[in-house]
Amino acid sequence: MSEINPPAAPGRTRGYDFARAVAIIGMVLINFPIFLMGSRGDVAGSFSYWLTELHYGRAAALFVTIAGAGIGLMARGANVWSVRRTLILRAIFLFTVGNFLILVWRIDILHFYAFYLFIAAIFFISLPRSFLLPLAIAIGLITVLLRAYDVDFDLIANWIASLSGSEAEIDLNDNYHSVSGMFENVFLNGIHPVFPWITYILVGMWASGLDLRDAPTRGRLMAVGGFMALGAPILSSLLETLALNGVISEAVLPFLGVRHSQSPFYLMGAWGTSFFVIGLAQAIVTRFGETLPIRAMISAGQLAFTIYLTHALLGVVIPSRFFGFGDLTHWQVIAYSFAFCFVVIVLAHIWRSFFDRGPLEWVMRGFAGNTPPKQTRPAPAALAAPGFWVWPVLGVALVAVVGYQFVGPTLRVGCDTEARIEDR
Predict the structure, then answer these.
(1) What is the Cα–Cα distance from 325 to 315, expressed in whole angstroms?
(2) Contact present, 232 and 258 (Cβ < 8 Å)
(3) How far apart (Å, rounded) are the C-alpha atoms in residues 44 and 373?
(4) pLDDT tens digit sequence for 56-104
(5) Is this prediction's pTM over 0.85?
(6) How far is CA 14 from CA 5, 110, 152, 354, in A?
């Protein structure tokens, strides 16, 4: 996911890389317990349980917000059509990889990223910055209203499927590999649906226009972000208490919730968290950017795409399916999560000491290209560009993915995501 931004260089805002590493840690602390921990009843309410629940859903939102900031930075002063081409090619790449990953990792975000990038490339990169926040708020509110009033999304999705000649009603939550199933998953009812998650791209693009190297600007961003991040859950809880005690109408209840829901309070809290973390990350990098721990975190942020696949496959899928890691205690999961983060951060820093980008970032660059950053000092050795083989290999993979999307049966492989998420 780091290649959604231009490759890191000392001349750019490294706070985004540090913030992305923070999101990686948050992602691991959420996903590892979901899939690897046994009973949660004996730890509910404990500090360690609170630690893993506090940011539930906000790490992914931070990733997408940073992706939006990367798009904004990419588009600044660049040829719009060149940026649009790069984003569309990255979207194709991520769609292909994500559709293979989803076979074993049901909460994949890459195929969602593909649509975020494609939509941003077509509709957003030419918009004036002053339009971005109002558009994000409008999309968020419209999505919330549609969900709160139980708009029949199944009907909408099956109508879309009928346009392709399909007459069969499809259980949309059970069949991602169909036209209507993919529509439902990607745009409406998946883990990270375009509506309203595209709003994080918009607020990230807006944030990219801020000069984070300016201390007062960072301070204002952190103050506003902190107020939103803390105020959203407090206000949501207050309204819920008032509604349940008959002080105000219970009609407000569908609009509440701050934990990976589609409520306006979740959006506001996640936007605020992203603003606060981005501002704080840049402040830390400005003050301590040359220290080894901070440089290692920055390196991890620059290899986020590689680390994302590593945490899914090597961190969860293989250990749980082949080594019996599916029933760990809470403290075992916590220890495993932090150990995994430490190892990948160290390895990422070692890798970045020799190469200018991660292995998967390198492949993506070979397929989609990038806007070259300005270099202010010598960078690590650049990996030679992948050969022409990238295009036919990705082409065959894309044909296979699209073909399976239209004719393939439902697959039930990989982690039992739905059941484990419901347990939470």
Answers:
(1) 10
(2) yes
(3) 47
(4) 678 999 999 999 999 999 988 778 899 999 999 999 999 999 999 998 8
(5) no
(6) 11, 23, 44, 19
